[in-house]
Amino acid sequence: MPWATTLDPKAPPPPTLCVTVSSTTDVLIIADMQVDFLAPGGSLHVKGGEALLDGINAVSSQLPFRYQVATQDWHPENHCSFVTHGGPYSAFVEDNGVSTGLAGLLHSIGARRVFVCGVAYDFCVFFTAMDARKNGFSVVLLEDLTAAVDDAAWSARTAELKDAGVVLLKSSALVAEGTQT
C-alpha cells in the first residue's frame, strides 16, 4: 500500500527513518557547548543552549562514534570579530581561512560522516556543517540538539544546509551499530 499523501487519519504512518551510527566511520562534533554561550550572563548567550546538555550527553555517551570532537570559541563581550570579521565560526577553519587541521585528521582516521550539534545553529554549527561538506564528508545535523542566536535566521540557514546536502535529523533517529530497528 503506498504511503498516504493526505492527512487521512486511517492511513498508515510513514516509515520511521533510522540512521545507524558506525564506530568505524562516524564522528560527532559538539560545537561550543561552553559557559560563555550557555549561561545567561555569558558573552554570547544562546537562549535554549543549556537545555541541550542532556540530549548531547546522551548521544555522546550512548552511541559508538569513532571519535568525538568538542570545539571551544572565546570572544570578550562585544568583540569585533562578531561584527567586523564575520568569524571564524567553523571547526575546520581559523582566522583568515587557515585550516585547523581537523579535515585532515578526520580523513586520516577513515571518517566518512560527521554529525554536528551544539551552539549556535546560525554560526558555529552552520559553518562547521558547511565546511564538513566542502571537505568531502557526509553531514548529519542534529536539529534537536542545537539552538540559534537569532531564531529568525533558522529558516534561511536550514535552506542553505539542505542545498549543500546536509541532512537534518532529530537525535531520536540515531541507533547504535548492531541495534535492531
Write the layout of secondary structure elements.
Blueprint: E1 19-21, E2 26-31, H1 35-38, H2 53-62, E3 67-70, H3 102-108, E4 113-119, H4 121-134, E5 138-147, H5 154-163, E6 167-169, E7 174-176
Key attributes of the depicted protein:
181 residues; alpha/beta; Rossmann fold; five-stranded parallel β-sheet; 7 strands; 20% strand
CATH superfamily: Isochorismatase-like
Average pLDDT: 86
How can the largest sheet be summarized? Answer: 5 strands, parallel
Oligomeric state of the chains present here: single chain
Largest sheet: spatial strand order: 3-2-4-5-6
Provide an overview of this structure.
The protein is an alpha/beta fold and 181 residues long. The chain has one domain: 3-Layer(aba) Sandwich (Rossmann fold). Helices cover 25% and strands 20% of the residues. It has five helices and seven strands, in the order ββααβαβαβαββ. The protein has a five-stranded parallel β-sheet, sandwiched between helices. Strands 1-7 form a two-stranded parallel sheet. α5 links the parallel β5 and β6. The longest helix is centred in the last third of the chain and has 14 residues. The radius of gyration is 17 Å and the shape is globular. The N terminus is likely disordered.
